[in-house]
Design goal:
The chain is α/β, with parallel strands linked by helices and 376 residues long. 39% of the residues lie in helices and 21% in strands. The chain is built from twelve helices and 14 strands. The strands form three sheets. It has a ten-stranded mixed sheet, sandwiched between helices. A two-stranded antiparallel ribbon has the order 6-7. A two-stranded parallel ribbon has the order 13-14. α1 (23-41) links the parallel β1 (12-20) and β2. α1 packs across α10, α1 packs parallel to α12 and α6 crosses α7 (207-220). The radius of gyration is 20 Å and the shape is globular. The structure holds nicotinamide-adenine-dinucleotide (NAD). Nicotinamide-adenine-dinucleotide (NAD) binds next to α4. Nicotinamide-adenine-dinucleotide (NAD) binds at residues 23, 83-86, 99, 102, 271-272, 292, 295-301, 307-308, 311, 349.
Length: 376
């Protein structure tokens, strides 16, 4: 496992909170309620430092992430991010778009391993568009390479071929070192779970992912206890929907992981239920972990108080596990969410006829209320 920090009794943790755009603002308020609860009632204490990112940062500073913000968050113990983006900023030049702020954090802090669990809560079995027997008890983990591949490869751009015709191009590239480090994380993680790892690529048509497969297979020799399978991405997307429980840990490239994890989100019922952790190697005095929901800024529902804050709160739960090494607190949060869902409380995205419909802030309040009944 990638370990991120040593937890010390009564240590004060500095958490950078970047709410961002759209529903990012709303769900961050709910995550703060939970963090404040742990500050008050647990052996940990927190200093929460809030900064701008994305469109809101561009509006203030003409940059989606200022150097000043980057420097400050780099010194914190962990970063919690809401979401970035929205139609207001879609026509900006590429380097000023909200998403560039996010990509810059990932790249500058070298957060190369993105953990995206897809867990089906018992109470939400009927919220998925798939049959209950296909997804009941599902608990899979997608590990996505996050700092290389086609999202970062050069050259990239759009150029004129002639007066009428343009050419858009991006570069899909991976070095063997980049593949080996994500492979190690994936094998180590699989070893700590069911000892099954599926690597997803497109080795039949893309040379860079042929190299991906070669390095994965070579790394497997160092982990004989882990059973490795390799799958093409087109087949993997089909298998995820046909029989998702055949998987336990999946490791894949940046773009394939982006797409497959959104697909996996619908197994769980809603994008609003999917957390993530982006983690790099531990280096002294440098933050190596960011936690954020998988979803975006959801401009279609922003400002209405109906967004589901659970992906954000579950991201906080991942922070307890990976950065603060407090897995028991992480489990407490998951248990509390289970209880709330079992009692029939739902935000609109996971609501069915018989449920109790509640708002974004009601959900945050309920998590805190249920935490009060927990012994930690
Ligand atoms: P999205 O994830 O924002 O929304 C997709 C759909 O899911 C929408 O119908 C939305 O209402 C719903 N949804 C998402 N999160 C929800 C939640 N917590 N509760 C209830 N419903 C939820 O994706 P999009 O619409 O393709 O993108 C919107 C903007 O977000 C774009 O600017 C995009 O670039 C950006 N984006 C940012 C991130 C990020 O910050 N990590 C990720 C993806 C997209």
């Amino acid at each position: 496992m990638v370990k991120t920090s040593t937890s010390v009794m009564n240590k004060k943790f500095n958490i950078s909170l970047l709410p961002g755009d759209g529903i990012g603002q709303e769900i961050s308020i709910e995550a703060t309620k939970v963090l404040n609860w742990f500050d008050k009632f647990s052996d940990l204490s927190f200093v929460i430092d809030e900064h701008d990112i994305g469109g809101v940062s561009f509006d203030k500073y003409e940059s989606p992430l200022t150097e000043n913000t980057l420097e400050k968050i780099s010194k914190s113990d962990a970063i919690l991010l809401g979401a970035v983006g929205g139609p207001k900023w879609e026509s900006l030049p590429f380097e000023n778009r909200p998403e560039r702020g996010l990509l810059k954090i990932r790249k500058e802090l070298d957060l190369f391993a993105n953990f995206r669990p897809a867990i089906v809560f018992d109470a939400l079995v009927d919220s998925s568009s798939l049959k209950p027997e296909i997804i009941k008890n599902l608990d899979i983990l997608i590990i996505r390479e996050l700092t290389s591949g086609i999202y970062f490869g050069e050259p990239r751009g759009v150029e004129n071929i002639d007066e009428k015709n343009k050419r858009g191009f991006n570069t899909l590239e991976y070095t063997s070192e980049e593949i080996e480090r994500i492979a190690r994380v994936a094998f180590e993680t699989a070893r700590s779970r069911s000892k099954r790892l599926c690597s997803v690529d497109k080795a039949n048509v893309l040379e860079s992912t042929e190299l991906w497969r070669d390095i994965i297979v070579k790394t497997a020799e160092k982990f004989p206890e882990v059973e490795l399978t390799n799958m093409y991405v087109d087949n993997a997307s089909m298998q995820l929907v046909r029989n998702p429980k055949q998987f336990d840990v999946i490791v894949t490239t940046n773009m394939f992981g982006d797409i497959l994890s959104d697909c996996a989100s619908m197994l769980t019922g809603s994008l609003g239920m999917l957390p993530s952790a982006s983690i790099g190697r531990k280096t002294p005095n440098k933050c190596n972990a960011m936690y954020e929901p998988v979803h975006g800024s959801a401009p279609d529902i922003a400002g209405q108080g109906i967004a589901n804050p659970l992906a954000m709160i579950l991201s906080l739960s991942m922070m307890f596990k990976y950065s603060l090494l407090k897995e028991d607190y992480s489990k407490v949060i998951t248990r509390v969410i289970n209880k709330i869902l079992d009692n029939g409380y739902r935000t609109k995205d996971i609501f069915n006829d018989k449920d109790k419909l509640i708002s974004t802030s009601d959900m945050g309040d309920l998590v805190v209320k249920e935490l009060n009944n927990e012994k930690i």
